[in-house]
Amino acid sequence: MNFNINNKIFIDRVSNDCILSDNKFIKIYNFFLINNYIILDNYINADVVILDLCWVNNNFLLETYKKIDNYLEKSKKVVLFWCVSPILREKYSDNVIYVSSNDYKNIENYFIFNFSISNIDSLNYKNKLTILDIANELNNYKWEFPSFEKKAFIEISSWCQFNCSYCNIKKIKWDTNSIQISEIINWIKNELKKWKTEFHLLSDDCWSYWIDIWVTFPDLLDEIFLLDSNIKIFISNIFPSYLLKYYDKIKKYIYENKIAYIIVPIQHTSKKILKLMNRSYDINDIIYILNDIKLNSNTKLCNHTIFNYHTETLEDFVGTFKVLKYYDKNFYFKYSDINKTFWKDFVSIKLEEKIILLKKLQKKYNIDITL
Q1: Are 338 and 57 in contact (CB under 8 A)?
Q2: What is the distance between the alpha carbons of residues 262 and 301, in angstroms, rounded to a whole number?
Q3: What is the model's pLDDT at position 362?
């Protein structure tokens, strides 16, 4: 199936603050812009709907189903993007097109183009989008914000070597794909020429970067900071036990305020729940590191917590509050066993009380709640 510039496109996003998704989305959007496709503001007159997927629970999944069903009923061609798209094959079979995040360049198999998506970043195109869509609203791409003028984003690797029991990523991402250090360094050199000095390093887990090329993430940071003394690094997704293991190797950069931001997703504080999640670390050891970062740097810390996980009691849930003060931003995601894979009988314990408690703390600890 091939589409050309005569096919009008509507882009619909079912995304939830996923920087990885946002970064790839910019490339996809630019691909359509630069190749002169017509992008509509609504789906009524569209021939093709691009559905950008990123969900964490049943509510988002049901919303996705509803959207897809509606588009198919209206005889629209539907293209599903990102890591979870293959999970929907069982329901929709060949009625839709699937393009996973690892293979997003395969968009070229379906859309006629003059400019390859691989070359999009290097093209000097007046309408090209360069701003990360933090709010997941296309209007945020319409102008340049001064606060973003120094920022650039690069996905250094894909996949995570860990095997958390709640995670769907392992269903569709089997191998780590890391970018060679030389390629990352060349990219940063080019961005420095554009006066970019703030670099967001993106991955499902940045510390899984090394596994297929045998160069560690701290090695990468060493090479980057040799380039320019003004560089600041923003790090997405560091598995807590690896932060603990390699902290001494990056601590100097944190103390020097060269690392501006780190996502350290503890997911829970209960030993029982962490064991069920297949996440092996002592939360007190992680708290020691978080406290050291807060005392000795200006580094911003972001946390992800899954609540209402299988057998989680109210006491278990309240225990997660003890890390809130170490983080500048806290995301709480209500757990849903989307594919009923892990628990035959999911136990939900005092969910309403948990939500009430979260909302009481929401403003004080900058908590974002996803239900």
Answers
A1: yes
A2: 5
A3: 97
Q: How many domains does the chain have?
A: 2
- Residue 239, domain CATH: 3.80.30.20
Residue 336: phi and psi, rounded to 5, are -135, 135
Do 148 and 266 have their domain in common? yes
Please give the residue range of the domain that contains residue 245.
143-370
**Strands ordered across the beta sheet of 232-235:** 151-155, 198-202, 232-235, 259-263, 300-307, 329-334, 367-370
Mean pLDDT, all residues of the chain: 84
Please, what is the angle between helix 217-225 and helix 240-255, to 10°? 20
**Block residue for tokens 């807060």:** 294
Sign of CA dihedral 182, 125, 99, 277: positive
pLDDT tens, position by position, 170-189: 666 656 678 899 999 999 99
Q: Tokens at residue 336, please?
A: 């849903």
